Amino acid sequence: MPEAHPDAPRSTDAASPAEPAYKALTNHLPEPRFVPLPGYTRVGEAQMLASAEAFYATMDRRRTTRHFATDPVPRRLIELAILTAGTAPSGAHRQPWRFVAIDDPALKAKIRAAAEEEELKTYRDRMTDEWREALHPLGTDHVKEHLTDAPWVVVLFAEKFGLRADGSHRKNYYVDESVGIAAGLFIAAIHTMGLVTLTHTPNPMGFLREVLGRGTNEKAVLVLPVGYPRPDARVPDLQRLPLDAIVQWNA
User: Fold this and answer.
1) What would the 3-class secondary structure string for the chain be?
2) What is the pLDDT of residues 165-213, one digit of tens each?
3) pTM, whole model, 2 decimals?
């Protein structure tokens, strides 16, 4: 009887489907460990709908403001928002998000000074007419008082690749997608606890890695001031797209 080719599909018995050859490439690794799905209880459709409607109504009130009160916010609330963000799914479970939470006034002032320097160059020299026109309804400029007014500034970094103990690189997968999901969960957590935040993306952002002493394997993605809105806080008069503009059902 001829020997089976090493890449040929394996089968444990005649009734089992053939196993793809690629599975043999990880035979030297321990078997994956699984545990029961924790904490899930199936509820009725009426309860699901009520929960979904309530959550949507809460999130539909979310707005981005640049007017922050200086009132302090307990550190535990920031911890819980970051822990919530850390529940996000990620490519190969690499969890490539790193949060730097800052409440030190001197460090916030340093970040603001560096951000405004870069933003002034962007608004003055780097920005195209199309980009400037797109931002005009938002009323933004290079002045970023929210970076010193807000009691907390949270900077989200994406870990482009991991570093092993010996200094070698460990590849991360779907980094942008994973970090984006974590950012969304952080924003939702901040809003549902009664605070506000702003997704600030100074351009370019390399100065943040230097100011905050982060590794060269990390890339700043978002600056998120967090706090209470000022009593006189205002937001642009904008409307969100309706459902039929953002969804397609089947083909």
Assistant:
1) CCCCCCCCCECCCCCCCCECHHHHHHCCCCCCCCCCCCCCCCCCHHHHHHHHHHHHHHHHCCCCCCCECCCCCCHHHHHHHHHHHCCCCCECCCCCEEEEEECCHHHHHHHHHHHHHHHHHHHHHHCCHHHHHHHHHHCCCCCCCHHHHCCEEEEEEEECEEECCCCCEEECECHHHHHHHHHHHHHHHHHHCCCEECCECCCCCHHHHHHCCCCCCEEEEEEEEEECECCCCCCCCCCCCCHHHHCCCCC
2) 999 999 999 999 999 999 999 999 999 999 999 999 988 899 999 999 9
3) 0.90
